[in-house]
Amino acid sequence: MSSNSAPTVYLQLRSRVPITQGRVVTLGHVARILSDPEWEAPLRNLELVEPQKWDGNLLLIDLMQIIPKVQELIPGVKIEPIGQNHVLVEVVQNPRKPSLALFLLVWLLLFFGSALTIMNFHADVNMQEVQIRTVEMLTGKRDEHPYLFQAAYSFGIGFGMVIFFNHLFKKKWNEEPTPLEVEMFLYQENIDQFVVAQEYKRMKASQNKGEPH
């Protein structure tokens, strides 16, 4: 590129980025940058905003806030945005060591809650009578306590859950996302869209208040 031609900067904003409380948000935090090698480091270190306490833990940075700062750094720059035009910055506190007691409490609540849900479902559909009738059809004899069939059925439920959720502790059977991961992703996407809409509404209201009547 000749020295007379205006440099071109390609910016691809990320969707959501975490940043530690007290740090200044730079362009390198929120965007992927492609430019001339001489400008890459200054662009990555370009300060955008310093989150304040009144900003909360979520901060919206719009492309219209970024462009003037890049133009101030590189006069005559040509900016080529790629993808979305905003990014959510999540201000997080310094990570704390996970609590073993809290983990055990949540594990116990999930374990007994799931067990009670399954038992209540079985009681509603009279599963015991269904199993007795099934064994009777298979063997020709009525057994009021088909423990072998019930044990196999119980192991089958557990095995089916492992296959369905594609997860056993930290091991996954393949690279496909689990249903829980998909639901969490969709939930996070909905939250982000809602926050972005609310932030744009707040920014518009602030601009309207500043306009002369």
UniProtKB/TrEMBL annotation:
Alphabetical list of InterPro entries matching this protein: SporV_AA, SporV_AA_N_sf
UniProt keyword list: Membrane, Transmembrane, Transmembrane helix
Organism domain of life: Bacteria
Domain spans labelled Stage V sporulation protein AA: 8-93
Residue intervals passing through the bilayer: 100-121, 147-169
Protein name: Stage V sporulation protein AA
Organism name: Paenibacillus cookii
The gene coding this protein: spoVAA
